[in-house]
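User: As part of a screening pipeline, I want to sanity-check one entry by hand. Below is the sequence and the SMILES for S-adenosylmethionine. Please return the complex as structure tokens so I can compare it with the automated output.
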Amino acid sequence: MTRDNGSPPLYAMVQSGLEPIAAEEIADDLGGEVKKTGRGLVVFRPAEMERVLDLRTTEDVFLLAWGTDALTYRAEDLKSIRRWTAHDVEWSRLLAIHHALRPKPKGKPSYHLVAQMHGQHGYRRVDALDALAGGLAGHFPASWRQVGEGAAVEVWRTIDGRTAVCGLRLSDRTMRHRTWKQEHLPASLRPTVAAAMVRLAEPRRDMRLVDPMCGAGTILGEAITYARRHRLGTLQVWGGDREAAAVRAAETNLRHLGPARLERWDATHLPLEDASADRIVSNPPFGKQLSRPDEVGPLYRRMIPEYDRLLKPGGRAVLLVSEGALLRETARTVGWKLLREIDVRVLGQPAVITVWRKPG
Ligand SMILES: C[S@@+](CC[C@H](N)C(=O)[O-])C[C@H]1O[C@@H](n2cnc3c(N)ncnc32)[C@H](O)[C@@H]1O
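Assistant: Here is the complex for your manual check:
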């Protein structure tokens, strides 16, 4: 069991692969202490509660009720879930912390139970949900109604193999979807992945960050947000796309967020001067979005020399691609140094975030 009686431990759910980036954000931006990471999970204790909902690389954040790495896959887990939920949690304390961060909505108080389960267990998800509900009996005021969606309080219990965590959800859908992203395109990135890419780019004051294939502007939006949070007032954010509809979508999304220069252009012949970007952060189309998968190699071969022309010596490129080996082969031809690779899944497909430095 993972349980502590000091300041409240939290856990974040993250996109698989982004655990180390989320852990870095928690440590660096929140002054939090990371207790452990697991698949899609970071358990931590923040230095202060106020800013936990500002995290950008996490999908959701919860107050930890209980957690374990010792599930057995057998039906006896159900008894354990019920017992931990009933006896090992000060629900009234967790509810008080929850209400301080998320004021109670008007109307009759309500709660919602969510049970997620990954892996082959000897019991059904619904049995694990019943065990959770049984353990909670009597802990919430009798007047509270259990509802489907839109509850004031959500109790989540996630099982992944031997690991399970249970907690009160602090975030809502705006953590993962953002409030500024109104326009979506079919190949649009998840904002949490875009935020991770911007972090990996390590933008600094007075720099220029360019996304030459910006789609709906997700990376640019996260760059603007990062600059505001990290007081990089003078970070210039530029982007473009060859599709007019994409440029329009990016304009709509970024209109209320902050300044960005947007243009319709061809990323393989950019109307920008040599060595005029400090950071390139982008995700070119995956094979599936091109008319033929074998167009990926030729696209990388046209794109990388152009990005190399654009980057200042010592500059960084963070590229999310479907074909890591092809990209490595092409980047070698311009002499870029590979700093980091992170395997992720994007729209259900394996992909890799690659971080490069142009020698300088
Ligand atoms: C995977 S999408 C980018 C998604 C974007 N990051 C977002 O979150 O919306 C790839 C984009 O590259 C654009 N694109 C493809 N080839 C291009 C080129 N030669 N020049 C500029 N844009 C290009 C496509 O129009 C598409 O919008």
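Points to compare against the pipeline: The radius of gyration is 22 Å. Residues 1-5 have pLDDT under 50 and may be disordered.
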